[in-house]
UniProtKB/TrEMBL annotation:
Gene3D superfamilies: Phosphoglycerate mutase-like (3.40.50.1240). It comes from the Bacteria. This is Phosphoglycerate mutase family protein. It comes from Roseobacter fucihabitans. The lineage of its organism: Bacteria, Pseudomonadati, Pseudomonadota, Alphaproteobacteria, Rhodobacterales. InterPro entries: His_Pase_superF_clade-1, His_PPase_superfam. Pfam families: His_Phos_1.
Amino acid sequence: MIAQAIYLSHPEVEIDPNTPVPEWGLSGVGRARTAALAARLGDLSGWSVVSSGEQKAIETGEPLAALTGKPLIIRADMHENDRSATGYQPRAAFEALADAFFAQPDVSVQGWESARAAQMRIVQEVRAAVLEHPDIPLIFTGHGGVGTLLYCHLAGHPISRRWDQTGGGHWFRFAADMSSVEQGWAAMETLS
């Protein structure tokens, strides 16, 4: 039987324009949603949790890793698409850039890592983690943008924001051999 895997995007973050985005942590709401998920899931022995190295993903993964009895596995290259060229952007400007990022996957929009490059990176990182932990169900904690790019790859869809989550703190389930998506994006409150 093929092991299963879950990709979980971090929930709400504490936005600080003066702090680099990869260093942002979860907000009070994000921490509460993560704690409620951990309480609902209970025992995860037999699982492993793999996280991006960004603070918000680590804070999402740590309570889940505690349920496995194993340390959180950090894969730094699971980070969100590199947007350091523009840094923090107000909501409207960010959404316009994100739309362009998905609409032109082979273009570096205002210096951002292209969607195609980010997709190749996240697929490679997830595949490497699966190969390093064969036959073990995995939970990946990461980000919405690269999560959507991973989802598109696994589902055989072209890169498109059409397949994006509807907000932070969403998950999808896929076969750990990366052959299929078994459950599309859903709010973390539905994961049990």
